[in-house]
Amino acid sequence: MQEEQDETQSKSSRKKEMHALQDIGELLVELNSQRLGELDLPEKLLDAVKEAKRLTQFGAIRRQMQYIGKLMREIDAEGIREKLALWDAQSKENATEFHLVERWRERLLAEENAFGEFARTYPQADLTHLRNLVRSIQKDRLADKPPKQYRAFFRQLRDIVRTG
User: Which one of 50, 120, 147, 157 counts the least CB within 10 Å of its CB?
Assistant: First the structure.
């Protein structure tokens, strides 16, 4: 079956697929141990990925990445692709949420009228508590205290944005 597919597929498309598999292998090398464990990789591939993490010389890393690409051609990589895509989407979603919360925090600290807009966007928010946190942050800044309330304010806003 694979040989039939190889015969009908052009050399350039086979080469493109090999490079794509090697790129996936590079992504695997960048993952932490926990994420690697979640992928349930074949032992041979997992060992090759761990070896690539250990290497420091460019030539050795390049050869190891080619070996990982070869191993990737021997397995069905679709499950790995899907899992990596899911993690990437979650990462982008988390970054978007983080930036949204960060913008709200800065606006609420700088603009009094931002509370009205925040209340319209997130009606479940306890504005009294948020205003008290803002006052605490301002007092802490004047007293050169650590930003404990600043972080608490961020966490509170993040919880509101997630539920809203």
Answer: 120
